Amino acid sequence: MRNNRLSFKDKIYQIVKKIPRGEVFSYKEVARRACRPKGWRVVGNILNKNRDPKIPCHRVIRSDLPAPRLGIYFIYAILCNDGSVYIGHTQDLQIRWSEHRDGRGSDHTKKHRPLKIIHYEKYFNREDAVCREKYLKTGFGRKWLKREWKAGRTRQAGGKIGGYNMGIKKKLKLLRLEGCFLE
């Protein structure tokens, strides 16, 4: 510690220590919480070198969400811990996912913890995105979404395992023991 200020490494470790069992953050989310939003690679390097078992590095995963672009809208479906699926639309999928994870996204995802994005689609105008969102919220749309997700044909995001200093299989095993299911 220098001048009563934590180093970036210490900030990372403090943030990762506070991730609850059964939950995961992306490297990007950890970097954002450490006030260095573009430092996700540094976060990965720091956690890769960690050997302290008190710091649960296995709870930090890669984010594979698309970057926001002007004029692009997304509809998305989030699997929640009670088995329900929340459907919404946004222009910035990364920020919206963070809001849902933090309990600020919607009343539903505040009550029912979001686990992962099971589907997302890209549209070039808001009207098409809203129309598709409305369809997916119907009984037929939900049946289609469930069928396609179970068959592995949806565009999933927000939860690839990524590297781990003790191996990806061990990381996946630890997450499953804590109640996370990412696949």
Structure characterization notes:
With 183 residues, the chain is α+β, with helices and mostly antiparallel strands. The protein folds into two domains: 8-63 and 159-177, Winged helix-like DNA-binding domain superfamily/Winged helix DNA-binding domain (Arc Repressor Mutant, subunit A, Orthogonal Bundle); 73-150, GIY-YIG endonuclease, CATH 3.40.1440. It has helices spanning 8-17, 27-33, 40-49, 93-101, 107-111, 126-136, 139-150, 168-177; strands spanning 25-26, 60-61, 73-80, 85-90, 114-123. A three-stranded antiparallel beta sheet has the order 4-3-5. A two-stranded parallel ribbon has the order 1-2. α2 crosses α3 (40-49). The protein is globular, with a radius of gyration of 17 Å.
Radius of gyration: 17 Å
Helical percentage? 40-55%
First-to-last CA distance? 39 Å
Question: How many domains comprise the coordinates?
Answer: 2
Sheet-strand content, in percent, reads: 15-25%
Briefly note the CATH topology name of the largest domain.
Answer: GIY-YIG endonuclease
